[in-house]
Amino acid sequence: MSTGRRETWDRRCWSEDLRHLFHQFMKKCEDGSWTYISEKEMLDLQKKASELSFQNVKPMKKKQFPSTLTRNFQEGLGFEYAMFYNKDERRIVCLFQGGPLLQGFPGLLHGGAIVTMVDYSISILSTKTIGFTMTAYINITYKRPIPIGSVVVINGQVDKIEERKVFLSSSVHSADEKTLYSEATSLFVQLNLEKSET
Ligand SMILES: CCCCCCCCCCCCCCCC(=O)SCCNC(=O)CCNC(=O)[C@H](O)C(C)(C)COP(=O)(O)OP(=O)(O)OC[C@H]1O[C@@H](n2cnc3c(N)ncnc32)[C@H](O)[C@@H]1OP(=O)(O)O
Description:
Low-confidence stretches: none
EC number: 3.1.2.2
Subcellular location: Cell projection, Ruffle membrane; Cytoplasm; Mitochondrion inner membrane; Mitochondrion intermembrane space
Keywords: Apoptosis, Cell membrane, Cell projection, Cytoplasm, Fatty acid metabolism, Hydrolase, Lipid metabolism, Membrane, Mitochondrion, Mitochondrion inner membrane, Transit peptide
Number of strands: 7
Membrane topology: Peripheral membrane protein
Organism: Pteropus vampyrus
Bound molecules: Palmitoyl-CoA
Number of domains: 1
Shape: globular
């Protein structure tokens, strides 16, 4: 399937820091330990999710299928990111540069935008680990504010799996790893699709 959506790393709005980190991670992919989650893979996952029916929510019609929240902004103004997945270590890394439309306090990223990117990253990790899941809770602590346009690294990992429950922890650091911006713990629950009405 052609997504009609180009990969994001050729966007002009990507800062030098983001490009540099992106290429560092692409290098880590060469031995197969890490894999880049491409736009096509994201779209395929979304498409699959949109075909699911659970808790009486009917699957979406093909024409209604929208893009995800984080991809609904003009280049550079919202969420610019790339994700990498490590299957053996059950980890995800998201390189994230938040644009001016995500502003909360002047010059700083809104906490809702930060938790959105954390939630989205670890939802992909939990989904890749045990199948489609939803966030039951996410408990985030904001330790330092993130300047608009700066590049941060979100690290997410699976801590424990108990049947349908996946417990994850995550952190948000500066690109040079010197500043810890936020930390979160969360629970994702695998969707009980058998309960669904189709
Ligand atoms: C579809 C995803 C695609 C992702 C990849 C695709 C990529 C492209 C799409 C991008 C998508 C981005 C998505 C971002 C992530 C969202 O933003 S998700 C949106 C925000 N979350 C929600 O709206 C969830 C609302 N809550 C619910 O629907 C239901 O409560 C849940 C979470 C599905 C669980 O309901 P349930 O399946 O009926 O499970 P239930 O039997 O109640 O609980 C199961 C177990 O979990 C425990 N549990 C449930 N909730 C809690 C809680 N809050 N605290 C503690 N324990 C709890 C229960 O106690 C139970 O434990 P056990 O008794 O088994 O030990």
